[in-house]
Specification:
Layout (H helix, E strand, L loop, with lengths): L12 E2 L19 E8 L5 E7 L2 H16 L5 E8 L9 E8 L2 E6 L5 E2 L3 H5 L6 E4 L2 H10 L9 E3 H4 L12 H8 L13 H4 L16
Parallel strand pairs: 1-7, 3-6, 4-8, 8-9
Antiparallel strand pairs: 2-3, 4-5, 5-6
């Protein structure tokens, strides 16, 4: 496990030219690091393994595990979420990409990375093994496109449009509404517990900042 060696250049470069990925210009330091958290507690006895990294080789390794997990399930879904760079420092782009299957989550810190994982473009274009599921995923797809990446346009589900909390009168429910209604009531107020100042550090710092203490 690597812990933040020396700073790198400010522009991401593709790991493999065959990926045809352009350099990504994002704010913040460029450093290689990996932090792995195991046994991260959720509700009840549910736990997660979270791998936070800016290292493309480590991300490729975790994507291989996600692919194996996803390919062994039916139906198979991969949860996807994207955090953006700061809205007060335009243009906004993808700062973090999160991919999860069951208890395993990859958090790829694009804003801190210098190179793209070799497997990433192909992974996001999968058509048969799994389907991507996100919440208000269209905005995430737009930010990824600005960074030279694309989730298969024919292979994703937007949970915000597929599920409605019967206890709210909103036209579109928030993530907290859906998580609280589908998973566990404790998630209803999760947005209120978030420090917005800390949350914005995703796009400007090389360290992994999450509510799960990935620091």
């Amino acid at each position: 496990m690597a812990d933040e060696p020396s700073a790198k250049s400010h522009h991401g470069e593709p790991s493999d030219k065959s990926n045809d990925l352009i350099d990504v210009h994002v704010p913040g330091e460029k450093r290689e690091y990996t932090r792995t958290l195991t046994g991260v507690e959720l509700h009840g006895k549910e736990t997660l393994e979270i791998v936070c990294t800016s290292e493309p080789d480590k991300a490729d390794e975790v994507m291989s595990r996600l692919r194996m997990k996803g390919g062994g399930l039916y139906p198979s879904f991969i949860g996807v979420d994207v955090e953006f760079t700061r809205d007060d420092e335009p243009p906004q782009m993808a700062a973090v990409l999160q991919l999860c299957v069951e208890e395993l989550c990859l958090v790829y810190h694009i804003a801190a990375a210098t190179k793209w994982p070799k497997r990433l473009k192909q992974f996001l274009q999968e058509e048969k093994l799994y389907t991507f599921v996100g919440f208000s995923i269209r905005g995430d797809k737009r930010m990824l496109n600005r960074s030279g990446l694309e989730i298969n346009p024919n292979n994703f589900i937007d949970m915000q449009r597929k599920w409605k909390d019967p206890h709210t009168s909103k036209y579109f429910d928030s993530l907290a509404d859906v998580a609280g209604g589908v998973i566990h009531p404790s998630y209803k107020g999760m947005k209120n517990k978030m420090d917005k100042g800390e949350h914005k550090k995703w796009g400007t710092t090389s360290r992994c900042q999450t509510t799960s203490s990935c620091t």
